Amino acid sequence: MLPWHNAVKHNCNWKYQVGETCDFTCKDGYTYHSGSESRTCTASGDWSGSPYKCKGCPIGPMLPWHNAVKHNCTWRYQVGETCNFTCKEGYTYSNGDASRTCQDGGSWSGAPYKCSSSEGGWLWG
Fold first, then answer.
1. Contacts of 35 (CB under 8 A, 6+ apart)
2. Which SUPFAM superfamilies does the entry link to (predicted)?
């Protein structure tokens, strides 16, 4: 019955009683995805409705190149959170976006940030 890690339950406490109703909301930075906003403990010990789920970006923006560094963001990524990127020492920017933002649908804006060896060519770290 517990909500996903990015949702909060209200108006109910453990040990749940038959007929008790719990309400759910999303934590700041997360948006509603699916499930019942209110669930009631039934006589059979089950809960009415379906699990309340909120979404953010479950994984960080991909860093396919081991020569880039991510800044100013931390896991669990929230909707609207922006990660910034720079190249490690000895590498130079090649392509992609230096800032990427967690979007409502759980994806990241922009293209992966890539750096190449200052001496030319790609290094796969």
1. 24, 49, 50, 51, 52, 53
2. Complement control module/SCR domain
32 - beta bridge partners?
A: 54
Question: How many C-beta atoms surround the C-beta of residue 109 within 10 A?
Answer: 12
What phi and psi values does residue 102 have, to the nearest 5 degrees?
Answer: -70, 120
Q: What pLDDT, in 10s, does the model give residues 36-81?
A: 999 999 999 899 999 998 887 767 776 555 788 888 887 778 788 8
Asked, as a colleague might, if the bond just before 15 is cis with ω within 30 of 0, I would say: yes
| Tokens at 50, concatenated | 């379906």
Between the alpha carbon of residue 91 and those of residues 7, 72, 74, 123, the distances in Å are: 40, 20, 24, 9
Go through the domains of the chain in sequence order and give each one's CATH number.
7-55 (2.10.70.10), 68-117 (2.10.70.10)
CA gap 16, 25 in Å, rounded: 19
Q: Is residue 55 within 8 Å of 33, Cβ to Cβ?
A: yes
